[in-house]
Amino acid sequence: MAIESRRGAGGLATTFAYMAVTASGSRRFGIRRARDRRDLAAHLRSRRLVPIRAWSLPSWVGGESDLSLKDQAEIHFQLAQLLSRGVPLVEALDVTASSVTTASRPRVERLRDLVASGSSFSEACRSVGSFDEVTVAVYRAAERTGELAGAARQLATSARRQLAISGKAVTLLIYPAIVMTISLAVSVFMLMVIVPRIASSLASNNSQLPGVTVFLWRTGDLMRENMGWLAMGVLAAAALATACRRSLAAAALRLMRRLPMVKGVVLAQESTRFFTVMAAMSRSGVTLADSLGVAVGALGHPTLKGQITRLRTRLIEGGVLRNLIQDVDAFPVATRRLMIAAERSGDLQSAFDTLAQDMAEEVERRSTRLLAALDPILIVFMFLMIGSLLMSVMIPLMNMTASAVA
After folding, report:
1. Quick one: which of 204, 203, 170, 354 has its CA closest to 272?
2. E strand or H helix at 50, and its extent?
3. d(CA 249, CA 78)
4. Cα–Cα distances in Å, from 356 out to 93, 149, 273, 329, 380?
5. 204 and 266 inside one domain
6. How far is CA 282 from the centre of its chain?
7. Hey, is 88 helix, strand or coil?
8. Are 224 and 200 in contact (CB under 8 A)?
9. Does 199 fall in a domain?
10. Which residues constitute the domain of residue 32?
C-alpha cells in the first residue's frame, strides 16, 4: 500500500483511502491527501490509475510529520548556495530534495512540482504548509526584488540561530530532568525496599521508632503491596500528561517567565527571535510596519508582544521609530539606543543583524549562568529527597546504639 500526500493551493487537504485499477487490470490500494475527491481522481489518472472507490479518513490518519527546523535550515542553505551560482530554481529544488531527511523529501518534491507547474516559490511554500508565515513573507518579498538567493541565505542564518537557541533550551530542561528522575527513582527504591526492611528489623528488637520512620515504613509497605495499581496510576498520569502536553507546556512557559533566574533567558530568546525575523524581513525589502506585523506573530512573550504591537500601531499612525522605541522597555537601554542610532543613519538592517547576534550571545551567557546556579539547587533537592529517607532510618539506629552503650 502506498502512502502519499498532496496539499493544494486552494484549501486544506483531506486524507483519503482509495482503490484504483492499473492499466494491466490489477487493483491498487493506497492512502493519499488531496483537496477533494475530484483532486484525488485527477492525480490518480495522471499516474495511469482508474479510481474505483475512495473513503475519507480522520485527519490524524496518514498525516505527515512537521518539517523539522534542521531540514528547513538545510533547504534554505542549499537554495542559497545553488541560486547564487545561477542554478534554476526547479533544478535547485531537485538537488535540495536529496539533502534533507527521508521524511521531509516528499515535501521538497512537491515544492519542485508546484514551481515547475508555474506557481511562485512563495505560493508553493504556503501551499505545501511546511513553512511559517515569516518564511513565506520573506520569499514573497524576495521574488519582487529578485533576491531569492539572499533571502534563502538570511533564512538559513535565522534557522541556525533558532536551532542553537532550541539546543540550549533543551539542555536547560534535560539536565534538571535527569537529576530529578534519578533522585525520584532512588527515593522510591529506598522507600519500598530499604526503609521497610530496616524499620521492621528495628521494631522486632523492640526499638522505639520515630513517627516519621513509622509513616515511611507503612507507606513503603503500602506501595509494595499495591504495585500493580501504582504502575497503572503512573501510566495514567503519563497518558494524561501526553494528552495535555500543550497546556502543560504553556503553563510551564508562564512559570518560567516569572522565575527570577529564568525569565531573563526566556526574554533573551524571544528578543533573538524578534531581531532575527526583522533582519530577514528588512533584507528582503519589506517595509518596517509590515516587518513588525510578521515579527509580532513570531513572539510568545506577552509583555514584549504587547509593546511591539503598540509600537507598530503608532508607527502606522505616523509616529517615528526613534521616539516610539523608548516605550519598549522590555528591551535593554543599550538595545533601544542602538536602534535609535540606526534609524537616524538609515541602517536598520545592519542593526537588526547585530542585535540578533548579540541577543544569541546573551542567551548563551545567561544559560551558562543558569546551569551553574542549578547545580547547588539540584544538590539541595537530592538531599531533601534522599537524605530525609536516610535520616528516617539513621536516627533510630543511632538511638539504639546509644541505648546499647549506656
Report:
1. 354
2. strand 50-56
3. 33
4. 28, 20, 7, 17, 36
5. yes
6. 25
7. coil
8. no
9. yes
10. 2-56
Question: Residue 133: enclosing H or E segment and its boundaries?
Answer: helix 133-145
Residue with C-alpha cell 509616529? 319
Dihedral angle sign, alpha carbons of residues 150, 151, 156, 157: positive
pLDDT over threshold 50, residue 117: yes
> Could you tell me if residue 62 is inside a domain?
no
The pTM of the full predicted model, rounded to 2 decimals, is 0.65
CB neighbours of residue 231 within 10 Å: 10
Asked whether residue 303 falls in the same domain as residue 373, the answer is yes
Q: Alpha helix locations (H) across 84-147?
A: 89-97, 105-116, 121-128, 133-145
Point out the domain boundary residue: 124, 146, 161.
161
Angle value at C-alpha 91, between 87 and 95, nearest 5 degrees: 105
Q: Supply the CATH number for residue 110's domain.
A: 1.20.81.30
Per the CB < 8 A criterion, the answer to whether 54 and 40 are in contact is yes
Dist CA 251 CA 368 (whole Å): 24
Residue 99 phi, psi dihedral angles, 5° rounding = -105, -5
Q: How confident is the model at residue 13 (pLDDT cuts 50, 70, 90)?
A: low
Q: Per residue in 371-382, pLDDT tens? A: 888 888 888 888
What whole-number distance in Å separates Cα of residue 272 and Cα of residue 138?
Answer: 17
What does the pLDDT average to over 385-399? 79
Give the number of other Cβ atoms within 10 Å of residue 326's Cβ: 14
Which three cell numbers mark 55?
A: 473513503
DSSP 8-state symbol, 191: I
Expressed in angstroms, the distance from the first to the final Cα of the chain is: 82
CA distance 45 to 41: 6
Average of per-residue pLDDT values in the chain = 81
pLDDT for 92: 92
With cell 479518513, the residue in question is 57
Q: Compute the distance between CA of residue 209 and CA of residue 217 in angstroms, rounded to an integer.
A: 10
